[in-house]
């Protein structure tokens, strides 16, 4: 692209990143992110969601959480997809306290939980034997 005077933008990088993530080419996806930083482009929420989803699928939820925290440092606002992806993975791993803390943070940041958010947390709480907590969350909804 650069050879013909056309510079890649965030959409171009998002498209490439999505393909790399779907192909499970994690290292290349991370290299692409570095290239984007080098080209002084700021990742957007779509790019972060793609990375977070890939990392969750590869069972590296801690790395996914690190990218979530990075979003706040560069003023990239997480959206409902970000939160639901992370909460789902945390619930699968029985990390309910972290998932519930993320739920509170989500509300604090002005991102309103949806049906997926609540059903994910309620299912995780029930799976963890915390029926009363699940009922409380249901009443909150």
TrEMBL record:
Q: Which PROSITE patterns does this chain map to?
A: PPR
Alphabetical UniProt keywords: Repeat
Membership in a protein family:
Belongs to the PPR family. P subfamily.
Domain of life of the organism in this record? Answer: Eukaryota
In Swiss-Prot or TrEMBL terms, this protein is called Pentacotripeptide-repeat region of PRORP domain-containing protein
Which Pfam families does the entry link to?
A: PPR_1, PPR_2
- PPR repeat copies, ranges: 9-43, 44-78, 79-113, 114-141
């Amino acid at each position: 692209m650069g050879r013909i005077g056309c510079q890649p933008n965030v959409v171009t990088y998002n498209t490439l990143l999505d393909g790399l993530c779907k192909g499970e080419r994690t290292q290349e996806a991370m290299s692409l992110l570095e290239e984007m930083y080098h080209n002084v482009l700021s990742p957007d929420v779509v790019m972060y969601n793609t990375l977070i989803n890939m990392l969750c699928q590869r069972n590296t939820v801690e790395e996914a959480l690190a990218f979530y925290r990075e979003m706040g440092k560069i003023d990239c606002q997480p959206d409902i997809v970000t939160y639901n992806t992370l909460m789902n993975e945390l619930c699968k791993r029985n990390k309910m306290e972290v998932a519930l803390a993320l739920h509170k943070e989500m509300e604090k940041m002005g991102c309103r939980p949806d049906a997926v958010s609540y059903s994910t947390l309620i299912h995780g709480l029930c799976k963890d034997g915390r029926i009363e907590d699940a009922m409380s969350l249901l009443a909150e909804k």
